[in-house]
Design goal:
globular, disordered N terminus, mainly beta, 36% strand, Jelly Rolls, 5-stranded antiparallel sheet
């Protein structure tokens, strides 16, 4: 049931981002025109950023792109909390890419290894790779999923836990 909640909650969130985002679409005529996959040129505005019901409220995201056929998506995510923000231990059904724009990001893997990513830092977590994600202060980063984006919160032993229980551990 927890997994179903994750998919449904994020599906609704993704739909709200799709309708709230205001991309500038190009792709009229020419050899590369593709109505299903138009070029997107946009600047995220403050009103494009929203909290996600499956994430700690200190993270705000703006949908940049979603492939409606595969569910793959790109989000611009930020936190303005001077004390930082943490997404507790979790995994995703699809691979996840992180690219840091500003600030410092910490990724802790389930085996206890910590990785610090700074501006320009990049990480790829394959499907079902357990990790904890945090910003040590204000940060901005891109999140790109290889397919539909979901999140499965877990305890240290890998046992899946509810969203409410997981968020007790976030800042």
């Amino acid at each position: 049931m927890k997994t179903a909640f994750s998919f449904v909650a994020f599906g609704l969130l993704s739909l709200s981002f799709m309708f709230l985002a205001k991309p500038v679409l190009h792709g009229q005529g020419g050899q590369n025109a593709d109505d299903k996959n138009p070029m997107i040129l946009r600047n995220a505005a403050p009103e494009d950023f929203h909290s996600a019901p499956i994430m700690p409220q200190c993270f705000q995201g703006a949908m940049e792109r979603i492939n409606r056929e595969t569910g793959a998506a790109v989000f611009l995510v930020r936190t303005e909390a001077s004390t930082g923000c943490t997404v507790p231990l979790h995994w995703h059904s699809s691979g996840e890419q992180i690219t840091v724009v500003s600030g410092t990001v910490m990724i802790k893997t389930n085996d206890g290894k910590n990785f610090e990513l700074k501006e320009g830092g990049y990480a790829y977590m394959p499907s079902r790779h357990v990790h904890r994600f945090s910003c040590s202060g204000p940060c901005v980063h891109f999140v790109q999923s290889d397919g539909p984006y979901d999140i499965h919160y877990v305890k240290d032993d890998g046992t899946e836990i509810s969203l409410a229980e997981a968020l007790k551990f976030s800042k």
